[in-house]
Amino acid sequence: MKFTCLQEFSERLQYNMYVPSESFIISERQMIMNTVIHPIPPVFDRNSKILILGSFPSVKSREGHFFYHHPQNRFWKTLAGVLDVPVPDTIDEKKAFLLSHRIALWDVIASCSIEGSSDSSIRDVVPNDLSVILSTADIRAIFCNGKTSWNYYRKYQEAVTGIPAVSLPSTSPANAAWSLEKLKGAWNVILSLIHISEPTRPEPIS
Q1: DSSP letters of 118-147?
Q2: Distances (CA, A) of 63 to 121, 129, 199
Q3: What is the SS3 assignment for 53?
Q4: Residues of 11-40 as b/e, b for ≥16 C-beta within 10 angstroms?
Q5: Tens digit of pLDDT for each residue in 126-145?
Q6: Which residues lie closer than 8 Å to 157 by C-beta, 6 or more apart?
Q7: Alpha-carbon distance 175 to 203, whole Å?
Q8: Phi, psi of 95 (to 5 degrees)
Q9: CA gap 128, 162 in Å, rounded
Q10: Residues 6 or more apart from 96 whose CB is under 8 A from it?
């Protein structure tokens, strides 16, 4: 359908005489999806024993320059509850919290097209190279925060790493069916499987 002028197009829209084609709707949706590069470096050191992977940072996390920055995400409360320690607040506290308990943290996806924070909108995935962590630390187990992370890990990285990942229930506020107490019960597996109940302590200076 062609329009002789912008006025005719506007009139047809006003009186519901124009129905956009499927290709038009798809192209409009693609225009509001942005290709985003993961902006947050992984947290790990040579003492890390487990690796927790999310899918891709939310808008709030990208703005805050750190993982699970959305105040309604239960990630930090869940881990602190499992480890029976206070919930870390600042980014520095969160990094120290992870490293002291030998936890490495990153995401499966290095870049993708995404609409806002919607995992279901993710397209054009480029996976992260996990060897930067696995070549440094003796990672004994990999856990995925939610099914989206787990599905992308299995698709892009499991064959490379040779380590099957354990899928844990998402700590996202969208996963409202899981209460904080229920999440802590499921995430307790990070203790029972790899025995990290005691955090690392600095070596004494001689």
Answers
A1: -GGG-EEEEE--THHHHTTS---EEEEESH
A2: 19, 23, 30
A3: strand
A4: eeeeeeebeeeeeeeeeeeeeebeebebeb
A5: 999 999 999 999 999 999 99
A6: 108, 127, 128, 130
A7: 40
A8: -65, -45
A9: 15
A10: 88
Contact criterion met (CB below 8 Å) for 70 and 173 = yes
Distance CA 13, CA 28 (A): 16
Q: What digits encode the pLDDT tens for the residues 28-68?
A: 444 455 788 899 999 999 999 999 999 999 889 889 999 99
Q: Is 82 left (phi over 0), alpha (psi -120 to 50) or beta?
A: alpha
Q: Measured on CA atoms in the order 7, 11, 12, 16, is the torsion positive or negative?
A: positive
pLDDT digits (tens, 9 = 90+) for 184-197: 999 999 987 656 44
Side chain identity, residue 108: V
At 175, list the tokens: 């996963």
Helix (H, G, I), strand (E, B) or coil at 165: strand
Per-residue HEC secondary structure of 80-125 comes to HHHHCCCCCCCHHHHHHHHHHCCEEEEECEEEEEECCCCHHHCEEE
**Least confidently predicted of 35-49, 70-84, 158-172, 188-202:** 188-202
